[in-house]
Every structure is written in C-alpha cells, then in structure tokens.
Specification:
Length: 119
C-alpha cells in the first residue's frame, strides 16, 4: 500500500491519472493513487507497464519504426524476428528445457536493445 501511494505522489501531475481515467472512473483513480484501491491500482500499474512495453517494442520493430526513429535506435531484422518467434513457440509448446544454458542470440539482442532504449 505504501509503495502504491508513493507512486501516486511521485507521478502526480505527470498524466498518469489521465491515462488511468480512460479505463477507470475519476473517483476510482483518485483512490488508486492514494493507497485505497489496491487491486485496481495493481491492475492499473500492470496495464500501464504493458502499454509502455508495447510502445517501446514498436521502436525496435523494423517495419513499425518511422525512418527518423529507426536511425536513432538499432532495430531487429527479419532473421531476429523469426528466431524470437521460434523461441516463443518452443516455450509455449514446452520444448525448451529450463536447465538449458543456451539462450537464443535474438533474445539476448532484444534484451540489449530494450535496455539501450530505456537508458
């Protein structure tokens, strides 16, 4: 509760409440930002994190990024996307073992690119 209240205090005036009001009512958002509606606040923070991740990932996709944005950031190429899709399919179908030490190169590249963009 304390952490969620501090997020509400730090993010006051940043537009977080306006974004959350697209999903929740204004009274609910006020309670979420002042430590009263814990489950809604958690769900709202997860939604916000997912939305920001999608926006960040669009910068890294070769066809999605505009020319000026793709010049600023390194992007993934089609071979990387194919490798990521194969790694995802293996994970979903449980064909990969948890004790494997070999992480696909594309996953490592994606992790590195996300860290660079966040910095």
């Amino acid at each position: 509760m304390s952490f969620l209240g501090s997020v509400g205090s730090v993010m006051n005036g940043s537009g977080l409440s306006d974004v959350l009001e697209t999903v929740y009512g204004s009274n609910a958002v006020a309670h979420m930002l002042h430590r009263k509606a814990i489950t809604c606040a958690l769900r709202g923070n997860f939604l916000m994190g997912a939305a920001l991740t999608v926006k960040l990932m669009k910068l890294l996709m070769p066809s999605e990024a505009s020319q000026s944005e793709s010049d600023e950031w390194n992007t993934l190429d089609s071979a990387d996307l194919d490798s990521l899709q194969a790694a995802y399919n293996d994970a979903v179908e449980r064909r990969c073992k948890s004790d494997e030490d070999q992480t696909p190169v594309a996953v490592l590249k994606l992790d590195s690119l996300i860290r660079d963009v966040k910095r």
